[in-house]
Amino acid sequence: MLHKNLILLLLIVCALLCISANVFANIENQPVIKLAVSNATSGPTAQLGIRLNQGANTYFDRVNREGGLAGKHIQLVLLDDGYEPYKTLINTQNFLKKKDIFAFFNYVGTPTTHAVLDKISQSHVPFLMPFSCAFFNAFFRC
């Protein structure tokens, strides 16, 4: 379990290194690090989204109990997309309108990821750990 936690933490740190100074400036003004999550918590693939969210929340609860990341607590902001790409796009647009998220996190599925990839790339908000079997070159734009 500790090994898995270390890997997750290293992935987050590596992703954070790709983020511009602009994003880091924004985080200093935020009381918490908000990770925007749009995945299925209803419908036929609900258990995948529910379990991913439970696992992430369990880990981040532990991180928060130990003082957070750079003194900031991590909060998942969850929206259900039912594994429907158009709902994922609407959820993503709503997250971007709020302008208070640090990163997109834990998106589930190739069709849903494909539906939002251009929007996320244009936003310059980090896209961390999408759960997809597809390889998208845009993930590696820093």
Automatic annotation (TrEMBL):
Gene3D superfamilies: 3.40.50.2300
UniProt signal peptide: 1-25
Superkingdom assignment: Bacteria
UniProt entry keywords in alphabetical sequence: Amino-acid transport, Signal, Transport
Listed InterPro entries: Leu-bd, Leu_Ile_Val-bd, Peripla_BP_I
Family: Belongs to the leucine-binding protein family.
This protein's name: ABC transporter substrate-binding protein
Taxonomic source organism: Thalassotalea castellviae
